[in-house]
Design goal:
By secondary structure, this protein is of the alpha/beta class. The protein is 30% helix and 15% strand. The radius of gyration is 21 Å and the shape is globular. Bound molecules: coenzyme A.
């Protein structure tokens, strides 16, 4: 991602709002309640007079509310700055964009590291179990808070796309369209296996302390770092890794560590990715989100009619990437089949890209053009 200096016009701010409190708690899909619930969010562009130009951006496993532009003192733009901004596929000259940190998060929205008002201590492992619907329930509450009743579009990659799909099932009348990039309607056994390796890396770290590590001053950083390294391998394609690193040595010449240290450049790269992630992310949030991913399965029998989709007028754009082996093309094809079988309008494209699953975060011209064309073709904002 490029690191350029911000122009004053692209300065953005992360705000926080309390959407649920003791008198009006969040009722989770499990029936448990949670209060208070604070949500960190950003908005870009301007809501038009009839409130018809809003787009909701749903982030993936390790994202946050800061999707576009620069905050004060930022040296890099938000994580989807290629997608969102003036003249970009999600064009903030025309659209009002909402981006929030997910429920259960660790970047401003209530999650396991937040204080439990009943005990005055961080929730830790006592944070209630959440599912995809709960993430969407909170997005919908934020929309109401902002005066938005219907969205032009909900959009996201990977876990973000799964939220857009869930939103359609929960409240189809609220979405004119949904854009799902490299997403899925269910994790495969291999996907779940990778989730479990990540969870075990965290939980087997002695600093995990059964999830009650906040008061110790440091969490299971080693375990979280290994979890990220494993995940990161699945975000890249084999072809890209070969091209970028091959068998290149990090320090040139020889193999000084004889297998016990960093010899290869790819090892050094993974350590960097793992350690920088562990310094910014909370292990309990990672555990919660991998579970949200694993249990998501809105179409257990793809042949069966889906009552929630009856009469659904939401238009879908599905995109997959040719080199993605995490949620590759067959995952999107399954969603396409279910939507078609239930009479929902869907457009699907596999985009050629060497970057693997991470393609959705990168500058892939065909992908950006497809989103631009689809979103631009939705009813013009008045
Ligand atoms: N040794 C150590 N560090 C190295 C290295 C090496 N041999 N080669 C590169 N790096 C470091 C760079 O210094 C840079 O560090 P910085 O980010 O601290 O400045 C970093 O690696 C660059 O990473 P890279 O993968 O090359 O960036 P990119 O621009 O190609 O991709 C992202 C950007 C955001 C897609 C990618 O970095 C990333 O974070 N991917 C994971 C995102 C994610 O969570 N995806 C899944 C969601 S489901």
């Amino acid at each position: 991602m490029s690191a350029t200096s911000p122009g004053a016009s692209s300065l953005v701010e992360t705000r926080t709002v309390t959407l649920f409190d003791e008198g009006n708690p969040l009722v989770l899909a499990s029936g448990a309640t949670l209060a208070p619930v604070e949500v960190a969010y950003e908005t870009y562009g301007t809501l038009n007079a009839d409130r018809s130009n809003a787009v909701y951006v749903c982030h993936a496993l390790t994202g946050d509310a800061h999707a576009s532009g620069y905050r004060e003192h930022d040296t890099r733009p938000g994580w989807w700055d290629t997608m969102i901004g003036p003249g970009k596929p999600i064009d903030t000259d025309r659209l009002f964009v909402i981006s929030s940190n997910l429920l259960g998060g660790c970047n401003g929205t209530t999650g396991p590291s937040s204080l439990d008002p009943r005990s005055g201590r961080p929730y830790g492992p006592r944070f209630p179990a959440i599912v995809m619907r709960d993430l969407v329930t909170v997005h919908r509450a934020l929309c109401r808070h902002l005066g938005v009743e219907r969205l032009r579009c909900a959009i996201g990659g990977s876990l973000g796309g799964m939220q857009a799909l869930q939103w359609t099932l929960d409240a189809p009348g609220e979405l004119e369209a949904a854009v799902l990039a490299c997403s899925t309607s269910r994790l495969s056994a291999q996907n779940i296996a990778f989730s479990e390796v990540a969870r075990q890396a965290i939980m087997r770290d002695p600093d995990f302390r059964r999830g009650d590590y906040y008061e110790a001053g440091h969490g299971p950083r080693n375990g979280l770092s290994v979890a990220r390294m494993t995940g990161h391998i699945t975000y890249l394609s084999e072809e890209l890794m070969e091209q970028r690193f091959g068998r290149r040595l990090q320090h040139g010449g020889s193999h000084p560590h004889g297998g016990l240290g960093i010899d290869f450049a790819v090892e050094s790269y993974l350590h960097h990715q793992g350690d920088s992630f562990a310094a910014r992310f909370d292990a309990n949030t990672y555990l919660a989100y991998t579970r949200v991913l694993d249990v998501f399965d809105p179409f257990p029998d793809e042949q069966a009619p889906v009552p929630e989709l009856e009469g659904c007028a939401t238009r879908f754009l599905l995109l997959s990437f040719s080199s993605d082996w995490r949620f590759g093309t067959p995952h999107s094809e399954r969603i396409e089949r279910v939507l078609c079988r239930n009479g929902v309008s869907v457009e699907f494209h596999e985009v050629a890209s060497p970057y693997g699953h991470d393609s959705f975060l990168l500058d892939v011209p065909e992908y950006l053009a497809r989103v631009q064309e689809f979103v631009g073709g939705l009813a013009a904002p008045r």
